[in-house]
Amino acid sequence: MPAPAISVDLLEKYFPPALTGWRALIQPLARPTEMALAGVSFTVEQGESVALIGSNGAGKSTLLRILATLIVPTHGHATLGGFDVEREAAEARRQFGYHTGGDEGFYSRLSARQNLLFFAAMNNLSPAESRKRIASMAESVGIQDDDLDRQVRTFSTGMMHRLGLARALLHSPVILLLDEPTRSLDPLAASDLRRLLRDDLVRARGTTLLFASHTLSEVEEIADRVVLLDAGRVIACDSPRGLCASTNTSAFAAAVSSLVRHSESAEATP
Amino acid sequence: MNLASNLRKVAAFFWRDFAIARGYRGALLLETIEALFGVATFYYLSRFVQSPELSSELPAGANYFAFALVGFAFFDYLSVSLSAFDASLEEARQNRTLEALLVTQTPLPIILAGSAVYPFVALAVRTCVYLAWGVLLFGFAPRSANWLGAVAILLASILAFAGLGILSAGYSILFKRGNPAKWIVLGLSGLLGGMMYPVSVLPAPLQVLARLIPVTYSLEGMRGALLAGAGWRELFPSIAALLLFAMILIPLSFAVFAWALRRTKITGTLTHI
Fold first, then answer.
1. Measured between CA atoms, how close is A94 to chain B, in angstroms?
2. 3-state class of A210 per DSSP?
3. What is the value of pTM for the model shown?
């Protein structure tokens, strides 16, 4: 059996409390005491599509940011393609592409092509390779060749998302980490993006997908399995159908709601 | 990671910044005109303050205008070194490209170095503009200049100043805003480093302090090379002092920066504004 593409093992993350006034001066040295993740464990197999769901503050973005090597865990380990995200961060970064639906993160005065060429160079692609990859990625995500030469500041939100996805895929990563990929997209654009993720990336190319989402219909459409987080803990990890079966409900939203309520009442019980 | 790949990345940073700057052509034109105002101010100031007492304190063959012009033009290297690294981080945080950069296969030291290339190249052009205005309109005539010596002093200065700049960036990623260390270094260097007057006019204790900051050696060496045509033997003490500063400051600054980076990855504040 091949090794999992993503492995998360007893991952804990604590942040320091936000200090104010003069105490803010010692903020960088403050002890991390605010729990964001409390012993999260799960694996994602190669070519699998897994959704992270949970309410705001459940720990989805923190988990994705740890996997993307942007922050380090307090305890526990996580690997991408077998590389530890903390100790072998450089190797881990070769494995994944990362895109968040909330951030544009482009140089607005440069064209889309100039932006992509720059980020391709940052991912060790030669100029010739970069041009080829940009043409093919732009086509995959639905950006016309003419649009590539427009300044990014003229792009709509939907186009920006597509561009962000193209950037995440430039270096042909085997794993894709997405944080709310369809946030602020209109229904048509969101549907296109979901189709691209499910059909082109996961099914056709075998890319491993781990994404956070608040849209349960999207999760049902794309995800093979779901990791349900609540207050930094995994309270369920199964396929959408499995979650429905385990809660004796026919609707996915009802299943999620039931699991969260059950978790909250279990926590409240002394 | 091999050298060629890193150089390609540094070049990509340069072209990125050049392409963005090209989008603001009006600003480039205004900077050229602003340089003229600066040079003209020093010229008329020099006519006012020219005196036999002052002349005896200047390097051989230099008048006050040439002295101040070189001081003003090259002091900028310290200012840019101190701000280039943390300004690049700040800008990346502001336009939200920092996360996108940090998840690429480019380590942060290359991101920092790459981001500083364009400011230094732009500064070199600006320095040439200053000197050109001085030559064309105000009689600045570096006829006996040791140009190779000046380049050597400049490179050694950039290395020494870069250490201070990376330290400043370390502060910036931890505390985000304000940077007292930067202003203290700039303030002390402006006061003691000999930008507008020779260090020899300072009281003796301040002259001792002046020997502890790199810009003193940088400006002395640069004036020696450009104004007095000093040879390598005469420039050696300045170059050696600057390289000594670089040897101490660069490893120290990388260690401090690595620690600061680690802290921000623990606190999760790396991309906070």
1. 6
2. strand
3. 0.83
